């Protein structure tokens, strides 16, 4: 296979004008091709992607798993595909490592994990979610996107690979939220989606304890308190999203035939 088919980047987008330039700039020098699957942007995202040399197609949103699998399938002719969200950016060390891995990895290696780190309100969160390892650089013919619930719409989408997985050095910047209000709104949306599609039932005990457990894990076990007030805010947001999920699941369970009020 020719050099031009070594490494492709697959990105899914919708109205990501705030972050898409930085995302593309972080990979433009290492990618042989960049494929973007857009689900209906109206803010100029598509135009920026095309101006920066990406191949863009429209596809109606089918959920994170189906959309990301479609994006990865567009790269099936390449040795390697790097799957990115439109609010993620590789630092120089990670970009160089990804390109080197695509050029020299042994046949037994099917994928690489990268460490994603939250950038919020102009600063790093060094403890919340750390390390947040994600399988992102994979051999497309030996990988598949999966998630929770019907068609993976319950969230927690990730890439499963057949073969050995190693870790790349460097950091993937995750710049997902504009401000605290945006963060809370997104957690509500994610919680509602998980409640709708996650087949696991809830209970009164889980409703009471699950948000507390989510907070304690990030604030104490992950030492989110060392991220200061911003870390506290983030951990409260995580607990809030978890509470929304459990509350909605309980409400919908009660509305089903035979459900108890």
What would the keywords be for this entry?
alpha/beta, two-stranded antiparallel ribbon, 12 strands, 10-stranded mixed β-sheet, 39% helix, 24% strand, 261 residues
Structure report:
This protein is of the alpha/beta class and 261 residues long. It has helices spanning 17-25, 45-51, 64-73, 92-104, 180-197, 204-221, 228-255, and strands at residues 7-13, 33-38, 55-58, 80-85, 88-90, 109-120, 123-124, 132-138, 143-146, 158-161, 164-167, 172-174. Strands 1, 2, 3, 4, 5, 6, 7, 8, 11 and 12 form a 10-stranded mixed beta sheet that branches. It has a two-stranded antiparallel ribbon with strand order 9-10. It has 7 helices and 12 strands. Helix 5 packs parallel to helix 7 (228-255) and helix 6 packs antiparallel against helix 7 (228-255). It folds into 2 domains: 3-174, Spore Coat Polysaccharide Biosynthesis Protein SpsA, Chain A, CATH 3.90.550; 180-255, no CATH class. Helices cover 39% and strands 24% of the residues.
